[in-house]
Amino acid sequence: MEKNSVIGYVLIFFLFIGFYFFSKQNQEELTNQKVSTEDSVETTPATADTAQVSYNDSLSLAVDTNLTETITTLRNDLLEIDFSSIGGTPKKVTLTKFKRYDSSALVLFDKGQTQLGYTIPLANGASINTLNTSFETQIIGDSQVVMTANLLNNARIIQTYTLSPNSYKVDYKVNFEGIKDIISPNNRYAVLDWSSAIQGQEKTVEDERSVSTVYYSYAQDEDVDYLSETSDDEEKLQANVKWVAFKQKFFNQTLISNTQFSEQGTQIEVKTPENEAAAYVKDVKAQFFIPLEQNSVLEDMDLYYGPNHYPTLKEEGIGLQKMIPLGWGIFGWVNKGLVIPIFNWLNQYFTNYGLIIILLTLIIKLALFFPMFKVYKSTAKMKLLKPELDEIKTKTGDDMAKAQQEQMKLYKQAGVSPLGGCLPQLVQMPILFAMFRFFPSSIELRQKSFLWAEDLSSYDSIYDFPNGFEIPFYGDHVSLFTLLMTAVTILYTYINSQSTSQMVGPMKTMMYIMPIMFLGFFNNYAAALSFYYFLSTCFTILLNYIIRKFVIDEDKLHQQIQENKKKKIVTKKSGLQKRLEDMAKKRGIDPKSGRPAKNNKK
Fold first, then answer.
1. The domain 27-327: what is its CATH number?
2. pLDDT (tens digit per residue) in 356-368
3. Which of 128, 176, 284, 510 has the fewest C-beta atoms lying within 10 Å of its C-beta?
4. Residue 452 phi, psi dihedral angles, 5° rounding
């Protein structure tokens, strides 16, 4: 394999490693009424396990410490949301079109795993915590529930939830009425605390942990930022926050402000459980400040409970799709402008995602083939020059400079580009990196099987090591698609090494070590990714074979080389070279020898 090919492969390998680590741096009331329509409301009584009142009895607000909890349910085709009369907020959210990895219902959160509550400081120094406050429930139509907490002095907190048909978004409004007369004069803010213990939905908690964190966006800026996915992190945001999302691998909970969280000091935080064997993924929190300067304050928000599906998030028009890690720079552009449109187009006509990946690979390969035809042809020619290269090696012996000079002369005679081996790898690099991000993030592949792989979005395991045994840098299982990818890469390396004699010693060994290193690197990645790389390498081998067999006439090429050897090669001087020679002559210097010209007069 020629030197430039090695440079291309080594560059790709180290860029993969760097890209991986960079991308890790750069996540219920009053009636027993049930309405059974397409969008229905259901109310059932229950008893709260614990309930406390965080403000004094002197406020003359009669609240029973044994609060009775009532669950009210809103449904549409996509969501089922249980609201609790204690706190007046969602208690359980089920995504009805999805299942967990164990085939159970996909419950985004349940029983206190996610909390959304307000703390309001009062004039007497106490405070109201809505999570410990009883709300009355009023059902309006079949898609809206109004939760009202009656406070002292006719003050009220009204939370209104409206669930539209075929939507993952809940219209959420909070109205603080008469609050100005009871709130502390020195602290006229309601503190909105939102927190969640993100529940595992996929094959392994570790896999979800590595991509779960808190995302956010400012109203005046289209960019989206996030906290660290690999370590505990927190940040204080500036004013005008548009939305904050608790994002996990394929789903998210997002709080969207239609009026902007305009106060400084919004806090967000992400923590990994101290016990990494915990069943949940991460602890995430957000805290907002809502000014209560007026006697009636309306906070207009939305709650999104749904999948990280690129077209669905993009329809919201506020940049939610940027939570999906498609890669930065040119890699993201390739995914958005090329890969996703082709994938979605194929998805309209085919239901087998293994077939879709095969067709996607073929389309991309063919799209790259025609603009790269001359390069492929040049690369194939170089593989046919082995006898000539062996002859040069024998003739020049250990004189490396002379050997390189003769090789370059041979390349010119054969019409071969010395960059022929490196350029194809460099051109394909944006595609390779784009796929590295696309397949693990594509919810369309979630729980889709192909051949032995039960879930193309996760690793395919044909054997799990017993008793928790794990091989360092490899894992606790054997991924067959990764093995096939490694095997075909080694085969491709072997074919190339048999075609040329330039790669010897450590460089040749490196070309065989790199696929083994990729074996450990990709063993825990999405099966679709390894399958794509396997197919891509197979197609490359096939294309090179076709070019050598049906495009290039070997006998004619060798005859052309021999004829070119008899010709004197005239090297055309560049404009810069000519100017340098003219300058040398004016100074009385022979441009060929670099010495004073013989006819130079003193």
1. 2.70.98
2. 999 999 998 888 7
3. 510
4. -85, -10
